[in-house]
Amino acid sequence: MGRAEARKARKRAARPSGIRRFFTWKKLLGTFFGLVLLGMGAFVVLYLLIDIPKGNAEAQVQSNIYKYSDGTTMARTGDVNREIVDLAEVPKPVQHTFVAAENKTFYTDKGVDLKGTARGVLNTVTGKGKQGGSTITQQYVKNFYLTQEQTVSRKLKELVISLKVDQRYSKDDILAGYINTSYYGRGAWGIQAAAEAYYGIDAKELSVQQGAYLAALLQAPNQYDWAIASDTGRQLATARWNYVLDNMVQMHWLDAGERQGMKFDKPIAPKAAAGLDGQEGYLYTAARDEVMKELNLTEEQFNAGGYTITLNVDRKKQKQLEKSVEQQLNDKLDRKGKKADARVQAGAVSVDPKTGKVLALYGGEGLSEHYVNNATRTDYQPASTFKPLILAAALEDEATTQSGQNITADTIYDGTSKRPVVDNGKKVGFAPPNEDKKSYGPVNVQTAMNKSINSVFAQMGADVGMDQVMDMAKKLGMDSADLKPYYAQTLGTMGASPMEMAGVYATLDNHGKKVTPQVVKSVSKQGEPVPLDKPESEQVISRGAADSVTSVLTGVVDDGTAKRSVRDNADRAGQQVAGKTGTSDDNKSAWFTGYTPDLVTSVGLFGEGALKSTESGRHVSMEGAAGLPRVDGGSFPAQIWAQYTFNTSSSNSKFDLDTDMGKAVKPTTQAPVTPTQEPTTEPTPTRSEPETPTPTRSTPSETPTSEPPTVEPTPTLPIPTDTETTEPDPEDPVDPGNGNGPGGGGDRG
């Protein structure tokens, strides 16, 4: 091979082959620089095309309008929650707190953070959420000139406009715009409104400590609001507060020695929005929360909105409910002169059982006096108003007693106080007392409901199965409570609100078809209707089971714990009524939840100690209020219910019940109900050796005064002796606190 051919061969061997032919380092480098130049050119074009726009109207806080169901305006919010102040009115150290919190290089940068913006664009493209690291200028541009949407185009506009704003306006102008357009929580837009909302002062009076907290709030207004923050939220807020002050020291805006002596200045309790004192404040908060949840809005988005919200609340019914609480409760209490009277809080909700519309709501003394809404709070026990749910579960599941008998209104149970609950032949370590420790002979379920006999329903819970009972509670609408299957839950030891209990009983009234209470009727934004999801309306319990419970509950009114206040009420004009009282055994709560064919109302009274900030106060007993030894469900709650219902529901329609059991259809043949003495020997405390007593299936030891029932009592246990023990079921979880275990909480009926 000649020299020429050899040279050609070497060139062919050195020439790239395959993919290397297309991706050489020269080509890659050229492509990179080409893209850079292309990007620079595109940015220059954007810079030339995009100018500083006019201030975005959505950046201005607008009124939200609330109306009653008849279209009458109830309240307007938004206008008073924002007030622009000059930067000169904000102390210089407080100005520095915002710079230290958000953008330490604010006074020297060009208004943008290229790394932060690039990170934000990347996060948006990859769907990783919001960006971090924006400058104060960029945040102000986003607040005032753009929107909160997370798109690449919006971020690029933000970058260009921020550069131009930084060139056109002074740093003081930009900082003033930022602190005046930002949202701080509690409906407060701007630093002036925030200073008033959190410290009750003007912005010019803010201290460095207070300013540092307001600056910290901007990162997470709801999470860091001391009044509603969780323990974790408070820890994060405190850490952010320290971060702000430490940065001020680093930037030489705060003396290190002065910093060491600073303590966190806790904000004051929230105050009601202007014009929203009294019950209108509670209606406003309930409607606001419902709309925010329904539309998946943040508080910031909602309060900046311009929404018109029409409530389902009927003005006449609302006024009547308020009047009933005043006349039947407040007029009888001396809240200023007697501590026992001052502890009583009332909450009530009235619902249309066909639609779920909340027709009236009572939340407390007034939003400015009592921030917690008693109508929606879920921290008090519903007590015996939970008993109908146990019966509903029994009827729905066609449950049987320990001896295999179907549970109906006529089923006989042993009503002995502190009778140990038995499950599958074994004591489970739970033996609740009845009201005032009264013991009864063999009684049927109807009488047990009328008299609210704890021992009967505790045993029924075991017969049905506590998992099934809790599942029924969820189906009927108890969705905020901790519904663990403890036997003590048969006494209603979980938490519940009047709103929830009204929904539960409305579902029973609606023949087992789910009723979800709704405060809001319709929503529009700037005149355009906003669609709302329709509430669930499926059949969650059979009509027969629901109607049977309703039938039984008429007995509570006709011959039970509510007959004094409801059956014999002078205002009653023949209306059929079903309902249930409830009183916790320490008298921290008392209830009456009842209904006619067209109206369901739940009234709760709660014993509450002094409020701390916006947190609910300590749960305390109501004993002694209005001079009564005990405030039970058949007293004030039933009286409020009766006056309200019989003055707003004039219909004489009858319950249309598909059932053949219970008081409403026919009086059942009942075993005599004779209170007896408490057993002379009580179950001894739990011991280490388990005992599995066999339930006695013989005739009850109590001797009836008339012919005994034909149905065998179930289960009838021998009176415990000193040698018997009450052993816990190792498979039954026991919560030592909150009344969710043996001996905790309880209920007087």
Largest beta sheet: strand ordering: 2-1-3-10-11
Largest sheet: 5 strands, mixed
- Broad shape: elongated
Structural class: alpha+beta
- Give the proportion of residues in helices: 25-40%
What radius of gyration results from the CA coordinates? Answer: 34 Å
How many extended strands? Answer: 14
Overall mean pLDDT stands at 81
Distance between the termini: 114 Å
Number of helices: 24
| Beta-strand share of residues | 5-15%
The low-pLDDT segments are 128-132, 667-745
Written description of the protein model:
With 749 residues, the protein is of the alpha+beta class. Helix content is 36%, strand content 9%. The chain is built from 24 helices and 14 strands. A five-stranded mixed β-sheet has the order 2-1-3-10-11. Helix 3 (92-102) crosses helix 11 (231-250), helix 5 packs across helix 7 and helix 17 crosses helix 20 (466-476). The termini are far apart. Mean pLDDT is 81; it is low at 128-132 and 667-745.
